[in-house]
Amino acid sequence: MTDYIIETSSLTKRFGKKLALNSFDLKIPQGGIHALIGANGAGKSTLFRILLGLEAPTLGSSTILGMNSRELTPEMRGRIGYVNEEHTLPTWMTADEITQMQRNLYSNWRQDIYDTVIGNFDVQGDQKISGLSRGERAGLNLSMALAQSPDLLILDEPTLGLDVVAKQAFLEALMYTETDNNTTIIYCSHQMEEIERVAENLVIMEKGEVKYVASPDEFLERIHYWICDFSNQAPSNDDIPGLLTKKSIEGQYHLIVSDQDSSEFEAFLIRNGAQGIVRSPINLEKAVNSVLAKNHKAPQPTSV
After folding, report:
1. CB 28 within 8 A of CB 183
2. CB atoms within 10 A of CB 8
3. What is the set of domains in the chain, with CATH numbers?
């Protein structure tokens, strides 16, 4: 196996006139939890389909577990776990029956991991899948996926639609379950509070392109949030270096910028007549949303 669990090179996918992936270059190393973040239509689903060999790219290439995505063998597919938002399982089977089926399919099955994870959820072995709540089905899916001992586990919006208690149980089971095989986890979610809790690395994509790859701390170091007044007219959007968003709130301007030296940017503000300058803390959700907003449309000043 190579040093990278996933690697793409100039990966491009067109659907007619729509460009779903645009020369998409990505390398994800083995180990850890990597959050894949993007607005609807960013290309995440297309990326997953190509990586898993379910869709052919228009141009470029992709490998998963060191093998070309178009050449995945049944043995290689058995080393990939996948949990989606629907948590679809055969409704006529019991929890024990479906677990036994999975146990027979995967030679590296870890019953100790299954028992640990399922213990976070109120699932009885003789319950039919049709009688489980959405949260219980999510827990059963996660238990089986982790017990499979995959090299790669893809979690695609796994907590969507779960209540607060079920979501908490899912995240705790994911974070605190010990595995011996250094499973790499790709966690795809729109819920930034989840990303902040679990992710060791962020992959932010928009309109089929990679925008940032960094740890949460490294990413936040690149995004700065400034609040100030302008004695005269505020600079135009095009004149503000690194601008992501600009809002006017009760007479004060709130500016979020990227990749700017703090001293140099503060000097820029002073030169343009700014007063009462404050650099404010910014959380991951606001920072990510600002990046995504920038790439949806040019920022426009708004009043609140």
Report:
1. no
2. 25
3. 4-214 (3.40.50.300), 222-303 (3.30.70)
